[in-house]
């Protein structure tokens, strides 16, 4: 166990079976999350970045048991999440919540804001329908930047940013300690993105929240995160505190991602690192280092041996044979 760790993930795997033929014979697996380990401390935000399809969202959903893991362990405050009973998991749901990527499809169009935010409170037996529940719901939505008159409106009556605020309010209603923010601003305009990011930051300061912040926008991750993990094809290739990762990236894939960040100065010249070739299929990943098919530094050892996810010092972890 890691000291002061709120959440620990140990060798987590999530595979999706592939079936073919009339008799639906299993012919393989899509290795969406392939043996990853990390931790999140109390009051900390861990950013998780990578290309689309690398397994970021699947990681978040598997941690919360919205998807069943194939192997591995997840500990929340020392409690084994993946082997928790139904009653134990019900209690954990109050402390572990999620904000989904799409602020529209994640909200029931037939329910008002009051019903959406209050549903979990009634289900967990924290409140009964009445004035106390209504007052608490009002308090929660106001803290998320909405107004009391929004309570009886439906999701289609709001803008994208307001709908995401409803999603945040729903997650906060149970007063959790840990929230998986699954690309919460990717579907929003840039100006609205900053409002939601600032809201999440303020709520973290006020409530001591911990986040697993999943995104492919490195600019947003740099702003909100304390530490950053980089995923490629279901595996973690690098993890470090924000300053070390952005100033001194060790893995070739991380270096390529950071070189793609636009700089708001037309006079600044950036040496872009262009990755050649397509991303391999997670159903048939390359042997050895999964990145060797696109890496300009690849040697024979990269094709044969899986690199160890090792600590280079100062909790800067890298999975690369040649990282120094």
**Overall SS class:** alpha/beta
CATH homology-level superfamily of the domain at 5-95 and 216-319? P-loop containing nucleotide triphosphate hydrolases
- Helix count equals 10
Mean of the pLDDT scores? Answer: 91
- Helix content range: 25-40%
Number of strands: 12
Kindly report the spatial arrangement of strands forming the biggest sheet.
6-7-8-3-9-10-12-11
What characteristic shape results from the CA principal axes? globular
Estimated radius of gyration? 21 Å
Specify the CATH architecture of the domain at 5-95 and 216-319.
3-Layer(aba) Sandwich
How far apart the termini lie comes to 27 Å
CATH topology descriptor of the domain at 5-95 and 216-319: Rossmann fold
- pLDDT < 50 runs, ≥5 residues: none
Report the biggest beta sheet as strand number plus sense, adding barrel if it closes. 8 strands, mixed
| Level-1 CATH class name of the domain at 5-95 and 216-319 | Alpha Beta
Percent of residues in β-strands: 15-25%
Order of helices and strands: EEEHEEHEHHHEHEHEEHHHEE
GO molecular function, one term: ATP binding
Domain ABC transporter: 7-258
Family: Belongs to the ABC transporter superfamily.
Protein name: ATP-binding cassette domain-containing protein
What is shown here, in short?
With 324 residues, the protein is an alpha/beta fold. It has helices at residues 56-63, 86-93, 113-123, 131-143, 160-172, 190-207, 218-224, 242-247, 252-259, 300-304; strands spanning 5-20, 25-41, 45-49, 71-76, 79-80, 96-99, 178-182, 210-214, 227-232, 235-241, 309-311, 317-319.
């Amino acid at each position: 166990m890691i000291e002061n760790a709120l959440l620990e993930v140990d060798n987590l795997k999530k595979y999706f079976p592939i079936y073919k033929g009339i008799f639906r014979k299993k012919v393989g697996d899509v290795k969406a999350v392939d043996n990853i380990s990390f931790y999140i401390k109390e009051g900390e935000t861990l950013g998780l970045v990578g290309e689309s399809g690398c397994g970021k969202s699947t990681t978040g959903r598997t941690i919360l048991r919205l998807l069943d893991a194939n192997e591995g362990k997840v500990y929340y405050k020392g409690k084994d999440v993946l082997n928790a009973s139904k009653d134990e998991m019900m209690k954990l749901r109050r402390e572990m919540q999620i904000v989904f990527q799409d602020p529209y499809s994640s909200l029931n169009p037939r329910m008002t804001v009051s019903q959406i935010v209050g549903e979990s409170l009634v289900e967990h037996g924290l409140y009964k329908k009445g004035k106390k529940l209504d007052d608490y719901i009002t308090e929660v939505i106001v803290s998320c930047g909405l107004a009391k008159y929004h309570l009886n409106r439906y999701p289609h009556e709001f803008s994208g940013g307001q709908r995401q605020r409803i999603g945040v309010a729903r997650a906060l209603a149970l007063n959790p300690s840990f929230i998986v923010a699954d690309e919460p601003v990717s579907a929003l305009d840039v100006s609205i993105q900053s409002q939601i990011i600032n809201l999440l930051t303020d709520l973290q300061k006020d409530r001591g929240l911990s986040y697993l912040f999943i995104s492919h926008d490195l600019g947003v991750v740099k702003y909100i995160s304390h530490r950053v993990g980089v995923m490629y094809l279901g595996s973690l290739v690098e993890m470090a505190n924000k300053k070390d990762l952005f100033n001194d990236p060790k893995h070739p894939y991380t270096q390529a991602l950071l070189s793609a960040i636009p700089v708001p100065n037309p006079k600044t010249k950036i040496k872009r690192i262009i990755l050649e070739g397509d991303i391999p299929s997670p159903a048939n990943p390359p042997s050895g280092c999964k990145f060797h098919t696109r890496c300009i530094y690849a040697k024979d050892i990269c094709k044969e041996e899986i690199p160890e996810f090792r600590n280079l010092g100062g909790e800067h972890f890298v999975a690369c044979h040649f990282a120094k």
